[in-house]
Amino acid sequence: MTWAGTDVAALRLRADRRRRWGRVGLYASAIGFALVAAFPFSWAVITMFKQSSDLYVKANNPFWFNEAPTLEHVKYLFNQTNYLTFLRNTVVVGLAVTAITLVLALPVAYALARLRLRWGERMGIAIFLVYLIPSTLLFIPMTRVVNNFGLQESLWALIIVYPTITIPISAWLLMGFFKGIPMDIEEQALVDGQSRIGAITRVVLPLMFPGIVAVVVFAFTLSATEFIYALSFNKSSAVKTIAIGVPTELIRGDVFFWQSLQAAVILFVVPVALIFNAFLDRFITGFTMGAVKG
Amino acid sequence: MAVVEVRDLTKHFGDVVAVDGVDLKSEEGEFLVLLGPSGCGKTTLLRMIAGLEQPTLGEIFLGGENVIGLPPRARRVAMVFQSYALYPHMTVAGNIAFPLKSQGIAPEERSKKVAWAASLFGIDHLLSRRPRQLSGGERQRVALARALVREPTVFLLDEPLSNLDAKLRAAARDDLMEFQRGIGTTAIYVTHDQVEAMGMGDRIAVMNRGKIRQLGTPEEVYHHPADTFVATFLGSPPMNMLETSDFLFGFRPEQLLPDSLDHENGDRAPFTFHVNRVEYLGSERYLYGHIREHDETKVIAMLPATVSLPVEADRDHKFSVARAQIRFFDRDSGLKIPPRELP
Amino acid sequence: MTALAQDRRRYLTDHPGFLAGLFMSPAVLYILALVGFPFVLAIVYSFTDISTGNPQLDFVGWETFRRVIADPVFRQSLWNTFRFAVIANVLVVVFATALAEVLTRDFKGKWLVRFLILLPWVAPVSLATVTWLWTLDSIFSPVDWVLRQVGLITENMYWLGLPDLARTSVVAVQAWRVIPLAAVIVMAGLTAIPTEINDAVAVDGAGTWRRIFQVTIPLLAPIIAVAVLFGVILTISDMSVVYVLTRGGPTNSTQVLSTWAFIKGIEGGALGQGAAVALFLLPVLVGITAVVLRLARRREVM
């Protein structure tokens, strides 16, 4: 049948077909993206359980366990390398950097969000600009400064320096969160008998929990991923974080302990990814809040 | 000694003059309403009394003491915001106890006072709930309980009823008035709703553009407005204003009545009222039209339902206003002037 | 002093001006000391011949800069830094937008796809790069194995051993790790597009690709600019991908400013030269940022 000159049945057929192809295209894209994203990690997972006599044969099918999978490389990682030390160092640095960042960035964020400052806008931009100065520019003089204070070859070097990266972004993030808390509540606290600082600690900060979580996540992420400062300051194994420990230590001369190397990556990345995935939605809200209100 | 007194209080925000040399003295135990359109400065005035804004000029006295420069916590005032500003992370009990905690009052004393305040408002059963679990009316009562619990010298209320459903508002108004009368503490109440102001205030300060245009009882501001602003702001529909070459005069819609009614006071000013449209609202009728004798100025008349006289639209009618009820104002300044002869 | 005046002094901490100073000075001082000072120092170093062997600050004028610029590896690094950033981020824009479109739809197994997509972003850069190092291994790469099985190649590709291939690999890995973050940013922007617009486009009969290019991307211009800005900063200021994959080789063909500065300054000890090399990161960063902002403003619709 026609309607205003168009063949409706034929149109519907075309639309159905387009929709079906659309679904196919959607799934194909989704699978494609997922494959490319996960491929090197999947390969790492397989590798870490492969026996050397299976893995190091060029002709073997790499995706198949031609010989039985083994845990020997994982055990080697935990027993014969400083992997656990790297993990511990990363956590310690993460905690310390979180603390320093919160102590310094929370007040700044509050001041920018709440106190009517004439230079408020400009300060906000200045803070962001500082973040733009990359560590790859500052690392050489920073290394000298660290050496001059005798902090080299220690976690303190990282603990002191990492906040230069976390503070600007945290201040910006927290500013967005502060703006989301209504002024009313703070003023009510003032009238109810609190000083400004009392009002902040008792009424505003408890409501800042998501913002503080965001900072914690950010600080730990940095501690686990930052490369150039860690590489420049710390050469001895005992004080390496996981970001530099794994790529530098699991190589003895020219021999790469590939299976343990890949195990080192997977055993860290997968649990972290699972946790991240669980909280992704909250993370996006925080980011967009900061972006919209900042 | 007045509980609250402000002298020549002024507040500038950059170039904007929010409050312009205001003098105000409250009376003991009164319910004082600050009434005006948005932007008139009423909220800024209230906030300055609370200590949330610092005045540019002028002085504020609470209980006879000059409080300029003192932060809110030093002033012993209680404030209720439009949003009620309940602390979301505390229970109702925690909210009510908060002002006491801030003063350092001991836990046993605190719980006694919280229980007392809660029972006064009938919210005992809500003490362990969180604000997000409460209805609008319940939140208001919690806010009031929290304000009451420190036994302040004055209550400051910033449009606390405007967030409520229209239906709840009348009941909430009644609750609030009963409570204030029972407690006897001075209250300063900000609103833009003139019905609320008329219904609640012992005295009303009508504000516009940072100044108090008139301070008086509801009867005074309604029947003896100090200028055209007060005259037209109060009353819904507003006072009808007509012009002559020398002055302005006005009368209220309910005062413009048909000649054919039996009138007690004889001295009435006649008008030819051409009615364009009749609105039947059940309890009253609004007649929209214009007065022939005065350049066809648009006026509104209000007939209560008790007057069943039929009035046709698109016709001239003979209406009149008692001369004693007509108010006169200066053409240029808008201020009230003594009665004149009508042309 | 009257009782009231004493009271007033007690309330100093409530004053906004005082509070602002108190709140902002620690962070400001900290940043000045640990960012401002080293930044100045970096500039100072490049005008000296300071090295670990000769730790004095001897002013040498433009000599250090001259030596640095004369080195052909430097010019290679500068060029690489620039083109890696540009190519990688073009890839990022295209694929992140497409990925964002995919992720805003509903389909079975979406949670799994989302989890896998996040891996490149969540993993620390150097660790993710280590997995690529192994995946692109010259002898045992599974990619090569598949290609050999299918018959497309007979000899392995030497992904990290030949200059052109090595550069491609570096760019690919950079793009690979930025795309998830960019997709998340774009997704935030997509949800901000009023559904009426998509409905209008559907009624007007435009297909998916046309819609993406002629409606979605222009509307998303500011959000995409944010994503690109992040991507550019991440690629230009990163040295771990190149360092772990190739150390800048083969024969300095994948060298970028950050790795070259590290090799010269930290590994080689020539601090002055290293600082000078690193300083060139600024103009590249500022330049690309300015271009991105200008492009975004021109295509901005809402």
Q: Can you walk through the features of this model?
A:
The complex is a heterotrimer of chains A (294), B (343) and C (302). Chain A has a two-stranded antiparallel sheet. A two-stranded antiparallel sheet of chain A has the order 3-4. Chain A is mainly alpha-helical. Chain A has 14 helices and four strands. Chain A has helices at 8-48, 52-55, 72-80, 83-114, 120-132, 135-148, 155-161, 163-179, 183-191, 196-204, 209-225, 228-233, 242-249, 258-293; strands at residues 2-3, 6-7, 251-252, 255-256. With 343 residues, chain B is an alpha+beta fold. In chain B, strand 4 (57-62) and strand 5 form a beta hairpin. In chain B, helix 2 (92-103) packs across helix 3 and helix 3 packs across helix 4. Chain B is elongated and about 75 Å long. The termini of chain B are far apart. In chain C, helix 3 (63-70) packs across helix 13, helix 5 packs across helix 8 (163-190) and helix 12 packs antiparallel against helix 13 (271-279). Residues 1-6 of chain C have low confidence and may be disordered. Classes of the chains: A mainly alpha (294), B alpha+beta (343), C mainly alpha (302). Chains A and C meet through helix 1, helix 4, helix 5, helix 6 and helix 8 of A and helix 2, helix 4, helix 5, helix 6 and helix 8 of C.
What are its keywords?
heterotrimer; A: 294 residues; mainly alpha; two-stranded antiparallel sheet; 3% strand; flat; C: mainly alpha; 75% helix; globular
